[in-house]
């Protein structure tokens, strides 16, 4: 074999180890799952919007509007009473939105002024998928407006260009979690809510990756510089060594991510001025106790991340190996972060929910949307899960610190497996 | 009371038997040397005694404490110098000694420990430079100082003078011998037969995970009619 070939094979064999392949395979599986989950949203998009309809107008344009909406939406509720209609909508029996066309719709238009339409939206979740539903309703209403313009032009009804271009005035109200937010569509509300919701997952991800890689590198350094043996023979409990390393990394990680947050804070404060919706007014802003819950959740997720990294760090051989060991943790933090941008927890398909919940970093990432949507029990369940997960992984890390594996690595056991596999194969061969 | 009692100690790495039933005793205040060829199991034995590796079989007591059940108590009495140890690179030599001495409060006065450490390391003004900039021998001196400054009841020294030049090695040997006057028991390993002869009250020859001969250097030389321990070693291993 040529020199080039020898070096090539040496590199390939060094790089193609289970440690590098397994995270990539897991990622591929996760993306495949996500693909099918969001494929579901795609299909949903192609379906028509489901709406409830109340038309008090008995004129021609009222009938025309009914026909137009009938073609562009699926009408799941047809009523006459607005109070009853609103109750149906809140109970989820009138689809994504209730469209109300008042008695004077036709007469207004005939009199040369635009017709007034009121739309009540039922917002089920936050994130991209909730905006899609209201977007479809908006689309159907746009179609109605275009249909009316078209009819006016064809029938030569008026030469008032303003009226032809804009025959309808709409007012929107959004019901979110039995709160009524006037004058906004779910997409607008979601845009405001997500300004806050977007930043938390990002921060969680940053803190975990920062602090986690610090723990792993610290272990890599101890092994590379041969300081670990000395440390382990000092009269200090292994538990304190583990906790000391975790606490050190947590503090440094928090400081580093605080610096990032200040930067992001400037970015967001420049955005905040553009929002017209006052969340306080609708009791959608977070209270002190909500921030406490989010804080606890964040802290526990950080502990989980650090303890997981400590376990990975036990297997590292040196500083270089430590760098690639952070990959699985980064992946675990990225998955729920991306998902949280698309959807809130409750709106996710079952298998994705299970996956997201199992990742301990998800809890704080979904905390704000869960609180906004009133799913406090999900936040608490996440906190309990994280606490158990953190305790278990830390105990495991301390236990591993007392075992030979910390100093000897897994050289021999890997060999054992190879022998076992070899034996199995040769046995099968003989048969 | 015996400082160390090792009986029937075995240590396996997975399927590989590195130490295959080793027994010896070291008296208090004695300097005891383990000598043997590469891969004989010296480091493995010392790591077990230093509470770093789990015992596969047999038993070890150190000053009456059972190594298996009372590792924390053992750690309070011992000081282990690994064969190829390092120090934290971004600390200065002084800071490193300070860092270590802090672990021995409140039983010992950290200021006093540091004083002794600085004296043994004898790195002059370089003690305030970062460990990163030290030569191999300088790092070794720092680590020896780290191990001896705490005046342990038992010092476990793996390849004490590895990487040191003749003068430095001699100086360090003198420091270790002086330490035994203060009541420290020393267990060391070496390939250097001359060093062993100079330092040890008693030695054990270890080969392939077993002790093949042990005794006082003088008696061993007489027994095999050899002029130095190297010849004894060749004779025994043959
Ligand atoms: N982490 C490990 N995993 C597997 N085998 C090991 C490990 N450490 C040591 N060994 C094996 O145990 C045997 C004894 O090694 P040890 O380091 O105790 O020898 P030694 O007497 O100190 O040698 P040297 O004089 O070269 O330092 C060797 O065969 C070695 O290959
Ligand atoms: Mg050795």
Query: How many domains make up the coordinates of chain B?
Result: 2
**Regarding quaternary structure, how should these chains be classified?**
heterodimer
Structural domain tally of chain A: 2
- Poorly predicted parts of chain A: 412-420
The molecules bound to the chains, other than polymers, are: adenosine-5'-triphosphate, magnesium ion
Indicate the overall shape of chain A: elongated
Percent in strands of chain B: 25-35%
Output the radius of gyration of chain B: 18 Å
Secondary structure tally, helices of chain A: 17
CATH superfamily (homologous) name of the largest domain in chain B: P-loop containing nucleotide triphosphate hydrolases
How many β-strand stretches of chain A? 6
Question: Would you identify the regions of chain B where 5 or more consecutive residues have pLDDT less than 50?
Answer: none
User: Biggest interface and its residues per chain?
Assistant: A-B, 20 and 28 residues
Kindly state the mean pLDDT of chain B as a whole number?
92
How do the SSEs of chain B run, as a string of H and E? EEEHEEHEHHHEHEHEEHH
The average pLDDT value of chain A, as a whole number, equals 81
Task: Set down the secondary structure blueprint.
The complex is a heterodimer of chains A (431) and B (238).
Chain A: H1 3-15, H2 18-46, E1 49-55, H3 60-72, E2 73-79, H4 82-90, E3 97-101, H5 105-110, E4 115-123, H6 128-154, H7 161-165, E5 168-176, E6 179-182, H8 186-224, H9 228-233, H10 238-272, H11 288-315, H12 319-342, H13 350-358, H14 362-372, H15 376-401, H16 405-408, H17 411-430
Chain B: E1 2-13, E2 16-27, E3 31-35, H1 42-49, E4 57-62, E5 65-66, H2 71-77, E6 78-81, H3 93-101, H4 110-121, H5 136-149, E7 154-158, H6 166-181, E8 185-190, H7 193-199, E9 202-207, E10 210-215, H8 217-224, H9 229-237
Parallel strand pairs in B: 3-8, 3-9, 6-7, 7-8
Antiparallel strand pairs in B: 1-2, 1-4, 4-5, 9-10
Bound molecules: adenosine-5'-triphosphate (ATP) and magnesium ion.
Residues 42-43, 83, 158 of chain B line the site of magnesium ion.
